[in-house]
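Ticket #4471: structure output looks truncated?

Reporter: J.K.
Steps to reproduce: submitted the chain below (137 residues) through the standard prediction queue, then opened the result file.
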Amino acid sequence: MKKYAIALMILVSGAFAFGGLDVPDVPDTDLPEIEIPGLDILDGIQAELDEVFALTDSLRWLIPELYVLDDVSAKLTELRETDPDIIGLQEELDALRAELVSARSEILEISDGITEPVQEVRASLDAFMEGLPTVSD
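Returned output as attached by the reporter:
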């Protein structure tokens, strides 16, 4: 068995050395540019998604944690009886909470405005995916 393996190895290396098992030369070919149908649709979808993500990222810092302010206001109500200065602090805190409630409603309004374009993007993507050919086995 060893002799056959050695003989086969010598034959194969000799064939390669003398050009017997050479790879044929393939002429250089220029491949034409391939146009993929629907690529402009995908580019449009990507641009719309980028806009949506930019809008949502800019709004993240506006979302207030109102439950913290409610807890502080409750604590200030308890302390109001012992310190008259706390009444002013509580009024400022309540004003801040009102501003945050307004900001939250603005965020919800903008979020609703974002939902519609996202649904349009989803519909475009679904239409594109339905138009793709399917591979049958």
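Triage note (M.O.): checked the attachment and the full token line is present. The radius of gyration is 35 Å.
Status: closed, working as intended.
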